[in-house]
Design brief:
With about 240 residues, this protein is α+β, with helices and mostly antiparallel strands. The chain is about 20% helix and about 30% strand. The chain has two domains: about 90 residues, Pseudouridine synthase I, catalytic domain, N-terminal subdomain (Alpha-Beta Plaits), CATH 3.30.70.580; about 140 residues, 2-Layer Sandwich (Alpha-Beta Plaits). Strand 8 and strand 9 form a beta hairpin. Helix 3 packs across helix 4.
């Protein structure tokens, strides 16, 4: 038995998220079909992050177990010949049998891309959140550190469930005109957490909420307090560290 770790990238605009679902295209489903074809086995793929519909990945990590003797260096080429051009296998590595793409991860990081211009771009409609009015970046930078550290992020989750404590190691904003780029690194994320944080930070840039307001939302530990959410197509799974 071998345990194979793959690093992949994908354009999420063609898929209903990473996790397999019946009757709709998902990244996991496409990968499992391709792996089953090259190994002649029923392959189950484990992903490091279950990205939502429309969310992209620059360096998603998956693993799967196989008895196939296909040479490691041939796996990316074989898979890329079968996969749609919206999914690319970048690297393959044989790892120990106890490696688990999700549970072995020490940290995950995402970037979120905001496009600020007088008019939207037809080329970026699936890859960045378009906003016409530029937020005050200084106001965002004044409050962005409120998210750092270990906290209960129930208020920044789209779904109920146990285990809402997460630790954000780093959160930053970069301006690359006409783009505003958010970067967030944590030990894990709740569903919708990054997009809700970005929405609140953009609202802070518009003067709609201040530090006290953000702290109140965090401390409330209650879903549904945030009006709206940043759209999925600006979000990219950036890196998984083990």
């Amino acid at each position: 038995m071998r345990n194979i770790k793959l690093t992949i990238a994908y354009d999420g605009s063609s898929f209903f998220g990473f996790q397999i679902q019946p009757n709709v295209p998902t990244v996991q489903g496409i990968l499992e079909s391709a792996l089953t074809e090259i190994t002649k086995e029923n392959i189950e793929v484990i992903g490091a992050g279950r990205t939502d519909t429309g969310v992209h990945a620059i360096n998603q990590v998956i693993n799967f177990r196989t008895n196939s003797k296909i040479p490691l260096e041939k796996i990316p080429t074989a898979l890329n010949s079968l996969l749609p051009n919206s999914i690319i296998v970048k690297d393959a590595e044989e790892v120990s049998l106890d490696f688990h793409a999700r549970f072995s991860a020490r940290s995950r990081s995402y970037i979120y891309l905001v496009y600020n211009a007088p008019y939207p771009s037809p080329f970026l409609r699936n890859y960045a959140w378009y906003i016409r009015e530029k937020p005050d970046v200084g106001k965002i930078l004044d409050v962005i550190d409120v998210f750092k550290g270990e906290k209960d992020f129930t208020s920044f989750s789209k779904s109920d469930g146990e285990g809402t404590i997460r630790k954000i190691y780093d959160i930053a904003l970069f301006e690359r005109d006409p783009f505003i780029v958010f970067y967030i690194k944590a030990n894990g994320f709740l569903r919708g957490m990054v997009r809700l944080i970005v929405r609140v930070l953009i609202d802070a840039g518009y003067g709609l909420i201040d530090r006290n307001g953000i702290e109140s939302i965090i401390n409330a530990k209650r879903r549904g307090m945030i009006k709206g959410i940043a759209p999925p197509y600006g979000l990219y799974l950036y890196k998984i560290e083990y």
